[in-house]
């Protein structure tokens, strides 16, 4: 579907004529290659600097028959008729004779890798030499010309083994129509050589006495491999496609002229039909472009003496004629060749007889109009037009075609003021032909508006060659823009179309200082366009009011030339952007890189679609963010996009088309339809594209809720509504699955709406509208909504009401009644499992409904009839109890059995115990409850039942070890003794005393019996209070406080009791002094231990550093069985831990074993490989333990002050203050900067990762996370300010 467009035609001049050979340096860049070329005539070799016209003669050798530029040696190889092979240096001009053939030479061709050269002598012998001119082999061409005389033939590649398609196997036995030529001498005796691009094979075309024109295929060593099959009227030009697939040779038939394509084995494969006859227009040469995309066919028209160069491309097994260059007799083409440099494969160099030099640069691109689906393909004198908006017509077929008398070289599509598509065709005769597209679909029609000839142009002397104008596009309805390059400069031409005189002229032009390479239309309203020059500068050009072109500014500066430019125009001019795809396959939007390795792009509304090698991607132009990506066949390219159908047309490398509907484009169209409340069209697209239907409401929830009546009116099909309701989920799909289309959108929800209850909200909303309408078509959607909300019983009741209504209607009329209820039930059974629905029906207690469901569900009557018959015999409430118990609706079953009265209480109590329904039972068995009557007898029965439930509940709670709650239940059940015992077990002393008094027991005895347990649990103040209240010895009460080290409370109690003041000196003071001494001794021990741990940690770290530095010799690395305890990255261990002797590879899968192993790792035993980690853990615990002593030290010092022991208090406070300062000053030495950095690092292995260092840093993973950092001490005001400090 791509056309071959002229990117630029550079025109240069040099006063060298009658040139036969044109040489290029394949290693030169574009600027050097365009400015310096080497040309040769029959007797001279020149270096031409085309930019200044300087000519330098390098060699004067008569009888030159072949010339090659040897890039590896930087020399030019000449072959002469006399047999000389000369090497000429382009830099110095020195000439050296490389070899000599005494019989003379008539042709020479070097392999592409320049390792082997093939020579044809005047005796028609083939000589193959190395690059040092050592003979490899010599072959007589006119011998061994019979295909059957080949010395090796195992059947591979023979015609008999080929597949012949529809012709069948008989084609293999079909005899050839070949007739030996009558007079071989009349056939041109030229011998041509062509190499395959990889240099493995070459072919020689020659004339044999038996078969006429034929060719032989040799390998690189000169061994004959294949001989072509015999065909009549083969011509001398031969060209091997660089990819190696075919050899192209012209061939004349009685009724047609072709370029035959032969395979390597010499069998004819297919052909290219030529639009002329070889008799009237013989083919002089064939040249493949270096990328094998284009075949150039040079011919000479004998009647008019004109030369033509036809450019063919292949797609989907069809050969398209894309360009035709025509040259007059006055200045014909002397020679031409394709560029072999990378990136310049579609560049052709031509040298005319007069010395004029042209460089044509082509590129492949699609001719399309925006998103209309119209695509035009050039094929000779036909323009094939396909409208992809209505049908996908595979090439080479099309929706319609325009056929003219001359060859088509370019076309442009636009839309006129009447919104009709208009096509301008630029033909090989430099005429413009205008057509208007009529009709649509598969049958397009075209009206020829007029044909415009070229008018007088003042620059005609510079633009005489064919199709010299490039970058051809519509500017407006009556003007076109094109560019023309002259030497180093270029001109932008505004071509005015004059319908009256039927001519087109240059209305105005703009001179640019560099060659133009690409262009595109800009902002149409401002009449702007963009033209890029070869230096990468993109110029913004506008049409002024005086009808002249003006260079506004340099819009952008790109690194390379652009293959394609396109302007994206929006409603807001500030959002407009220029999109460019450079030759290095990089895609830019206003100079901002979007992606690399891009093969094609196309605008798709608010999105930019582009392809990479195997991906199709979309960029939202407003944010320039990638929003969608999908895989595709390798090498696919974008053909066009269709505006209103969300379709994208892709062409694969072979030429076949694929049409897809990317979700991102479909959602854009769906969003537009939903904004217009066109729910039917949006729903239809969603179904076809299989897009989740939640987007109908999630697109704009407020709008959907407000227009739900429109939605229900437009969606007349109930199955569509069922589909919508079934798809509903408690999720906003505009923020999850389809967030790419709602990047900037923030959905606003209706009042009272919650996304977690979205399904219920919408189902209730739709149900309210559907039930209110009374339309029968909503019956199934209502059922679906009920199912979606989990209201199966309501759905069944709806169906049952319809069934009863239809039954009543059937009684009143003799006409048949529709089975709406049966159909509804059948649909419901499709949504819900039959057993579940049967249980729901049973739960309604309506046996008629149960039988209706059971009959339609195909259940076996033996399964349900006996059960239903048994239920019918029971009392109503008890029947419902049995049904609910069967359905495992235990709470409802309990309600029903409660209604059965006292006689069923025993069964009810067992049911309560079995299903742990104690709380529900207590609510139901209440005296003032709604279920139970309130007469005296009933009240007594209820109280008895309640007490039994409470006792059962208490036993249940005691079994759960909830003795506190069990005590309450025992009390309510009347078992005070058990309630007291339960309260006593949990030391609820207040309740124990209360229950003891209620049970008329001795409260003091009960209280004192709790003393040992209270003291054991550390409840010293409670024990003191009970001793004080119920005991007889104040000393015992005071001892409770002293046991808990509550000295301040003890001092207060002793002083308040005036009769026991002697206890203060005799009991409290000694205990306080002893405790203060113990506390001070503990601090001494803790300080000593802390300093020992700290010093040992320092020693361990020094030793570890010495080992890493290699100071300590002969040490053994630890076994890393501990790797499982480290983070995931610690599996990247040093190679010295991977030996087979490193242990048994324990995994510590069990959590118990893991904790045991962690304790082993954190052992403080010297020599432990993780001793430093264990020391840090111990130090952290020591710091936390000592910091928690602040309140205890404060209370002890206050108690000492109360007893006027200031010296002891001062010593204790001073000692603890020094200890705290020591702890804080040691933090930096313990928790080093290395530990902090190790926690912050993200371990991502690279080829340069030091795994030994990595493992050492990850050792800290053994520590608990909070212990890897300095402790955060919660310091309080623990000091007594009245005490003097010794430091």
TrEMBL record:
Residues 1149-1158 have a biased composition (Basic residues). Keywords: Cytoplasm, Nucleus, tRNA processing. The keyword tRNA processing applies. Residues 663-871 form the ELP1 alpha-solenoid domain. Residues 1134-1158 are annotated as: Disordered. Residues 1137-1148 have a biased composition (Polar residues). GO terms for cellular component: cytosol; elongator holoenzyme complex; nucleus. The keyword Cell cycle does not apply. Residues 377-639 form the ELP1 N-terminal second beta-propeller domain. Residues 1062-1230 form the ELP1 three-helical bundle domain. GO terms for molecular function: tRNA binding. It is found in: Cytoplasm; Nucleus. GO terms for biological process: tRNA wobble base 5-methoxycarbonylmethyl-2-thiouridinylation. Signal peptide: none annotated. Residues 878-1050 form the ELP1 TPR domain. SUPFAM superfamilies: Putative isomerase YbhE (SSF101908), Tricorn protease domain 2 (SSF69322). Pathway: tRNA modification; 5-methoxycarbonylmethyl-2-thiouridine-tRNA biosynthesis. Its main location: cytoplasm. Residues 1-340 form the ELP1 first N-terminal beta-propeller domain. It comes from the Eukaryota. Component of the elongator complex which is required for multiple tRNA modifications, including mcm5U (5-methoxycarbonylmethyl uridine), mcm5s2U (5-methoxycarbonylmethyl-2-thiouridine), and ncm5U (5-carbamoylmethyl uridine). The elongator complex catalyzes formation of carboxymethyluridine in the wobble base at position 34 in tRNAs. Belongs to the ELP1/IKA1 family. This is Elongator complex protein 1. It comes from Ceratitis capitata. The gene is ELP1.
């Amino acid at each position: 579907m791509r056309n071959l467009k002229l990117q630029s035609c550079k025109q240069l001049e040099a006063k060298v004529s009658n040139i036969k050979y044109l040489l290029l340096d394949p290693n030169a860049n574009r600027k050097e290659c365009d400015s310096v070329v080497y040309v040769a005539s029959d007797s001279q070799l020149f270096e031409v600097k085309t930019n200044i016209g300087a000519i330098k003669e390098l060699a004067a050798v008569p009888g030159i028959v072949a010339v090659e530029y040897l890039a590896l040696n930087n020399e030019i190889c000449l072959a002469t008729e006399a047999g000389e092979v000369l090497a000429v240096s382009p830099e110095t001009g020195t000439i050296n004779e490389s070899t000599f053939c005494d019989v003379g030479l008539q042709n020479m061709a070097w392999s592409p890798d320049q390792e082997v050269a093939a020579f044809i002598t005047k005796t028609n012998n083939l000589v193959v030499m190395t690059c040092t001119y050592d003979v490899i082999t010599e072959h007589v061409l006119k011998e061994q010309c019979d295909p059957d005389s080949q010395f090796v033939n195992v059947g591979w590649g023979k015609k008999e083994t080929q597949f012949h398609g529809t012709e069948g196997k008989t084609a293999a036995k079909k005899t050839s129509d070949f007739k030996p030529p009558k007079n071989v001498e009349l056939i041109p005796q030229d011998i041509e050589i062509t190499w395959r691009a990889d240099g493995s094979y070459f072919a020689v075309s020659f004339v044999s006495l038996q078969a006429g024109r034929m060719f032989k295929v040799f390998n690189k060593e000169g061994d004959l491999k294949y001989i072509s099959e015999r065909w009549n009227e083969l011509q001398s030009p031969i060209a091997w496609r660089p990819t190696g697939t075919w050899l192209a040779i012209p061939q004349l038939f009685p009724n047609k002229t072709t370029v035959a394509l032969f395979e390597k084995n010499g069998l004819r494969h297919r052909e290219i039909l030529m639009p002329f006859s070889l008799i009237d227009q013989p083919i002089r040469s064939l040249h493949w472009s270096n990328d094998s995309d284009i075949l150039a066919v040079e011919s000479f028209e004998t009647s008019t003496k004109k030369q033509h160069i036809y450019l063919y491309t292949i797609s989907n097994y069809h050969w398209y004629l894309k360009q035709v260059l025509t040259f007059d007799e006055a200045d014909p083409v002397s020679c031409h060749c394709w560029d072999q440099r990378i990136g310049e494969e579609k560049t052709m160099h031509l040298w005319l007889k007069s010395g004029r030099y042209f460089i044509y640069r082509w590129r492949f691109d699609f001719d399309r109009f925006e998103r209309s689906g119209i695509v035009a393909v050039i094929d000779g004198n036909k323009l094939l037009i396909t409208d992809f908006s209505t049908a996908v017509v595979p090439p080479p077929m099309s929706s319609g075609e325009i056929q003219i008398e001359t060859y088509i070289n370019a076309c442009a599509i636009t839309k006129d003021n009447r919104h009709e598509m208009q096509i301008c065709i630029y033909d090989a005769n430099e005429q413009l032909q205008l057509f208007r597209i009529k009709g649509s679909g598969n049958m397009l029609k075209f009206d020829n508006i007029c044909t415009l000839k070229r008018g007088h142009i003042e620059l005609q002397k510079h633009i005489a060659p064919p199709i010299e104008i490039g970058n051809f596009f519509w500017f407006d309805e009556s003007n076109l823009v094109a560019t023309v390059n002259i030497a180093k400069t270029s001109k932008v031409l505004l071509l005015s179309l004059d319908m009256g005189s039927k001519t087109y002229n240059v209305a105005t032009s703009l001179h640019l200082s560099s060659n133009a390479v690409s262009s595109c239309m800009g902002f149409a309203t401002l009449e702007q366009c963009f033209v890029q020059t070869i230096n990468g500068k993109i110029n913004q050009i506008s049409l002024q009011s005086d009808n002249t072109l003006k260079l506004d500014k340099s819009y952008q500066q790109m690194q390379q030339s652009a293959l394609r430019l396109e302007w994206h125009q929006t409603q807001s001019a500030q959002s407009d952007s220029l999109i460019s795809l450079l030759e290095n396959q990089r895609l830019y939007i206003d100079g901002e890189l979007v992606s690399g390795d891009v093969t094609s792009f196309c605008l798709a509304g608010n999105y930019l679609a582009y392809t990479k090698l195997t991906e199709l991607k979309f960029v939202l132009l407003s944010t320039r963010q990638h929003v969608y990506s999908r895989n595709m066949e390798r090498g696919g390219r974008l053909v066009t996009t269709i505006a209103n159908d969300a379709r994208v047309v892709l062409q694969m490398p072979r030429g076949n088309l694929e049409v897809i509907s990317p979700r991102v484009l479909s959602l854009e169209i769906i969003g537009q339809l939903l904004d217009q409340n066109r729910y039917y069209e949006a729903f239809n697209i969603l179904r076809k594209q299989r897009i989740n239907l939640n987007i109908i409401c999630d697109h704009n929830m407020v709008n959907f809720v407000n227009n739900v009546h429109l939605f229900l009116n437009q969606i007349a099909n109930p199955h569509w509504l069922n589909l919508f309701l079934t798809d509903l989920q408690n999720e906003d799909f505009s923020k999850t699955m389809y967030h790419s289309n709602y990047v900037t959108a923030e959905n606003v929800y209706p009042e009272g709406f919650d996304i977690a209850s979205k399904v219920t909200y919408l189902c209730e909303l739709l149900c309210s509208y559907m039930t209110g309408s009374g339309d029968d078509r909503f019956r199934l959607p209502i059922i679906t909504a009920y199912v979606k909300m989990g209201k199966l019983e309501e759905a069944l009741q709806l169906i049952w009401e319809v069934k009863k209504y239809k039954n009543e209607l059937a009684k009143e009329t003799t006409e048949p009644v529709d089975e709406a209820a049966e159909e509804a039930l059948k649909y419901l059974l499709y949504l819900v499992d039959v057993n579940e629905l049967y249980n729901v029906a049973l739960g309604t207690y309506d046996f008629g409904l149960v039988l209706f469901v059971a009959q339609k569900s195909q259940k076996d009557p033996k399964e349900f009839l006996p059960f239903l018959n048994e239920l019918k015999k029971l009392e109503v409430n008890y029947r419902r109890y049995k049904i609910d118990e069967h359905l495992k609706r235990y709470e409802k079953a309990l309600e029903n059995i409660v209604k059965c009265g006292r006689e069923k209480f025993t069964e009810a109590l067992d049911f309560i115990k079995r299903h742990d329904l104690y709380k529900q039972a207590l609510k139901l068995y209440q005296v003032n409850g709604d279920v139970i009557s309130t007469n005296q007898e009933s009240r007594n029965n209820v109280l008895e039942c309640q007490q039994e439930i409470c006792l059962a509940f208490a036993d249940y709670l005691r079994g759960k070890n909830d003795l506190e709650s069990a005590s309450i239940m025992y009390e309510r059940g009347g078992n005070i003794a058990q309630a007291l015992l339960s309260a006593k077990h949990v030391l609820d002393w207040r309740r124990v005393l209360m229950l003891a008094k209620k049970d008329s027991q001795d409260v003091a005895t009960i209280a004192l019996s709790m003393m040992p347990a209270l003291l054991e649990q550390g409840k010293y103040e409670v024990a003191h209070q009970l001793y004080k209240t119920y005991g007889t010895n104040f000393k015992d009460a005071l001892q409770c406080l002293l046991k808990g080290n509550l000295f301040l409370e003890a001092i207060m109690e002793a002083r308040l009791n005036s009769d026991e003041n002697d206890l203060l000196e005799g009991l409290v003071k000694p205990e306080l002094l002893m405790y203060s001494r113990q506390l001070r001794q503990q601090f001494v021990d803790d300080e000593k231990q802390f300093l020992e741990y700290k010093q040992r940690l320092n020693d361990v770290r020094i030793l570890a550093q010495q080992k890493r530095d290699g100071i300590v010799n002969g040490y053994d690395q630890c076994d890393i069985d501990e790797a499982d305890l480290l983070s995931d990255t610690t599996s990247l261990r040093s190679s010295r831990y991977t030996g087979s002797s490193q242990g048994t590879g324990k995994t510590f899968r069990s959590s118990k074993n893991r904790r045991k192993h962690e304790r082993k790792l954190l052992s403080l035993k010297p020599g432990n490989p993780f001793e430093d980690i264990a020391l840090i853990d111990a130090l952290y615990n020591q710091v936390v333990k000592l910091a928690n002593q602040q309140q205890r030290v404060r209370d002890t010092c206050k108690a000492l002050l109360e007893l006027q022991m200031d010296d002891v208090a001062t010593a204790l406070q001073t000692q603890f203050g020094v200890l705290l300062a020591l702890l804080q000053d040691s933090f930096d030495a313990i928790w080093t900067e290395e530990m902090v950095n190790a926690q912050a690092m993200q371990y991502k292995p690279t080829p340069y990762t030091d795994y030994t260092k990595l493992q050492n840093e990850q050792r800290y993973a053994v520590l608990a996370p909070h212990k890897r950092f300095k402790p955060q001490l919660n310091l309080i005001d623990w000091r007594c300010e009245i005490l003097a400090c010794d430091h």
